[in-house]
Fold this protein.
Amino acid sequence: MDPSNPFLSNLHYHLPNFVLAALMYTLLGRVLLSLVVDPASKNYIWRFFCRITDPFVAVIAVVTPKAVPPIVLWLLGVVWLFWLRVGLLYLFLLLGLMPKAG
């Protein structure tokens, strides 16, 4: 790692944060797309959103009551991912591994 490049020297923080953010916004995109696309659609964009988010939705479904509609389950997933990102930030702050500004 190049110590002169602040992004690469803080990759331990940026990479998990980026993955969680990408999953969170993809799940939010799935929610918005579900308003205009049929759930059984063969649209390649819809299938991409489903394929990327289904593993995380399956994890959320384990701790969520079965009576919850899928769109609410996806929104709960967005909330869970948001709080995972906040928890990651807090963990890095506690450990003193947070990237320094400047």
